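Bench log. Compound arrived from synthesis this morning; before running ITC I wanted a structural hypothesis for how alpha-D-glucopyranose sits in the protein. Inputs:
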Amino acid sequence: MQFLLITDLDNTLVGDDRATFTLNQKLTAIRHSCTLIYATGRSYTSAQHLVHTKQLLEPDYWVTGVGTEIYERGKLDRFWANEVSTAWDRRAIAAIAQTYSELILQPQSEQNPWKISFRLDQADKSPILDNLRAQLSKAGMNYQIVFSSGRDVDILPSNADKGLAARYIRESLHIPASSALACGDSGNDISLFQQSTLGTIVSNAQPELIDWYGQHRHPNLYLARSPFAWGMIEGLQYFNLIAAQI
Ligand code: GLC
Ligand code: MG
């Protein structure tokens, strides 16, 4: 059976080297029947660097920049780039967001044509994000705000996130949602769990994802008892995608 494994990198596949190694071995044994997607907030360059340093398996697809970009065999998916460009006014959104002094712009390397990323270190974050949302909506902008790890603020086109990018790939491969498993640990993974695929949340997940799970429990979603790639192995076994003994 062909199945699709969609996984976040930082603090999911990566975080415990022994767990990553053990999962890689299991996946190598069944690589022919598994299509692998890495779905990360990192830029493509930064994700590639992590894959090399942590000796991760080469994926079939890279969903980078929180779903704003898709790469296959080193090439940006132009169709997706076109899709997410529709009605996206980066310049106008950036101009509004930059008037918020609490939002600290992330390094240039983490910005891309469809992603404006900030850090928000303020203790009381919701009023700032609520105001920003209200202002962007009032200005008629096409956007969504993704909040992760208690401090990362990504502003993206409303039709670009990890979940939508993964669905686009899955549908192009004609793999049913019931044969796809998404794994993650933080806010930018919520969109993965909003698709109708199976999902595994690793036990070290961030509060924003645990809170979301508390409100969206579903038989397709599994909260693992173990952290990092150990939790992924648990999820793969829970959904019978890999045998318990391998
Ligand atoms: C990664 C990206 C960063 C983003 C964060 C959350 O850390 O490098 O730009 O804000 O993921 O999506
Ligand atoms: Mg993560």
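What the model suggests: The pocket of magnesium ion (ligand 2) is lined by residues 8, 10-12, 185-186 (CB under 6 Å). The CA atoms of residues 56 and 97 lie 36 Å apart.
ITC booked for Thursday regardless.
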